[in-house]
Amino acid sequence: MRKVTMADVARLANVSKSTVSQYLNKRYEYMSEETKKRIAEAIEQLQYRPNVIARSLKQKSTATIGVIVFNILHMLTTQVLRAIEDMCQQHDFHVIVCNTDDDPEKERKYIDMLWAKQVDGFIIFPTGKNVDLYKKMIEARLPLVFVDRTVEGIDVDAVLLDNEGAVQLAVRYLVKQGYKHIGLVAPPFASHVIPRTERIHAFRHVLRAANLPIEEEWIVTEQVKRIPERLDALLRQNKLPEAIFAINDLTLMEVLTFVKKHQLSIPTDVALISIDDVPFASVYTPSLTTIAQPAFDMGKKAAERLFMQMDGETRPQMFRLAPKLIERDSAKKRGEKNEW
Amino acid sequence: MRKVTMADVARLANVSKSTVSQYLNKRYEYMSEETKKRIAEAIEQLQYRPNVIARSLKQKSTATIGVIVFNILHMLTTQVLRAIEDMCQQHDFHVIVCNTDDDPEKERKYIDMLWAKQVDGFIIFPTGKNVDLYKKMIEARLPLVFVDRTVEGIDVDAVLLDNEGAVQLAVRYLVKQGYKHIGLVAPPFASHVIPRTERIHAFRHVLRAANLPIEEEWIVTEQVKRIPERLDALLRQNKLPEAIFAINDLTLMEVLTFVKKHQLSIPTDVALISIDDVPFASVYTPSLTTIAQPAFDMGKKAAERLFMQMDGETRPQMFRLAPKLIERDSAKKRGEKNEW
DNA sequence: TTGTACGCGTTATCAG
DNA sequence: CTGATAACGCGTACAA
């Protein structure tokens, strides 16, 4: 059961390989109907499938891109990926997906391997720790788009959330609803994690601009699993802020764990808003007010830019996509009667 | 800036291509230190990266597998995928991911394209509608594993949830907690959707075995978006069952929407259990009792079987992985005081 | 309109 | 220990 090749088809159809090739590439302008039919029959009879690998070798294009993410289990990642895959589908491209778990070593290995595999481009959620490699990719003119994070000193297309805008949306909303004592909950500060850094930074910025007090105790940046106990401590001291802003879905979960444990009432005891529109936001009681990331748009944009790069030279650009406030009940006006 | 090839390295190192090739493949047994060094230097200087595509052509292996799923956005899919990717990472394999949206046409196209791309194997969540193609794949000895669903008449490795067991776990638990009037909520019946079919079927079976009444009105199989209204109707007629079994996460969401709308109290007004351990199960109030699918194990098993097939012949086998009851508060004993 | 011959970048074989 | 040379399967001038 040897693999059938073009030569086999040619032999059976009694023509040469090139004729078969022309046929496959629809260059039938000068081909007799008779020949076409014979080739078609031979292909059908032999169940011939062109070997794209061989073609790639010649044409220097694999119609495949590599997408390197931290963890496909994160909702944002999944959605971005889905959007990328949809775009690729339209261009008859395929997507190779790799998880780095935010480990620079894994990232390096994946980039090397996919590069060797001749992928036509990369969309990466960068760990930020392989600056030399990123530079080499750019030097080699490998189409490349960063998503979610950028890396200082790397001049490349990047598609990010407008984090400052997201924080503004959240904090201003809380303020408008009458909350003045606002806390933030985030994982530990890490300068290379752009969204986190920007959000925490913007938080201070926005509070200051609104003339609100910045209480350091209310800026909880902590290992995710230890967030509930940090909040516990605040509660014990009776120092819980009136409202909590969770900077992403992971931290939101911890806040909810805390809230549930103490049977606090939202938003009466503490109001709640978060970035990432979690799927259960509307069925939770009370329904959760969130700032949604335009995940699909981000994926779409990233893919678009990548295809533009593959089509020809473009200048690197940074795109900040707009977040969206989805108002529900968890941060309703202070003192206002809640209907749930 | 032409791509640098092995020939360039050979020229610079003053050896032949074959020697470079040997070097790369670590066949240095009879190679002089001197030569080794020269080659190493040339490679470094030229920043040479072997072209895996060319190698694949020769070796008939791409170290790449195709994974074809309905929709990467589903939690089960994401988790299975993550497990597959982890396994592949260990074998230095890559994963191409494709979404079919349960459309047989898309599925056919993807299989054809990936086949042409010479992937070394397939893991598929099959739509079930391309029987001829599946058969051709098997005929061609293409390593293949089905996940989540099987297809009648196709003799191939398949990794599935033990659906009957999952339903038993759910219903027996409800019964043990004192519930007798149990309803089921599911998307519309469709014979090729194995999990759904098996769960609905098993539900009747288990009820019968437990000598419980099978009330047709309580078996709600309906378009997901219309589920709440179906439940509304039951409620209006005062015919709501004591407990509801949602056969997956999607339907669970609809039940929760219904519950929230009417401000019903769980489990007092209606108890709730579902298949799929949604991420918010423990922070919801009350926390949700669920039947968890062993998604990671499923992915791992599928990948293992695929690698076994690639290693040599194996006999097709069906694997039924065990679900797990995660007891929380949404289906606590009828009449028992709840502490949330 | 079709066939010949060569190139794509690598590996395998076999001399030397 | 190293180097020619022939594949691998396909695309494409160029020749016929």
UniProtKB/TrEMBL annotation, chains A, B:
InterPro entries under this entry? Cro/C1-type_HTH, HTH_LacI, LacI/GalR-like_sensor, Lambda_DNA-bd_dom_sf, Peripla_BP_I
UniProt domain HTH lacI-type: residue ranges? 4-59
Q: Which residues form the HTH cro/C1-type domain?
A: 2-53
Acetylation in keyword set: no
Give the top-rank taxon of the lineage listed in the UniProt record for this protein: Bacteria
SMART domains attached to this UniProt entry: HTH_LACI (SM00354)
Q: Which GO terms describe its molecular function?
A: DNA-binding transcription factor activity; transcription cis-regulatory region binding
Record PROSITE patterns: HTH_CROC1, HTH_LACI_1, HTH_LACI_2
Q: Which UniProt keywords apply?
A: DNA-binding, Repressor, Transcription, Transcription regulation
The protein, known as: Transcriptional regulator, LacI family
Task: Give the organism, scientific name.
Answer: Anoxybacillus suryakundensis
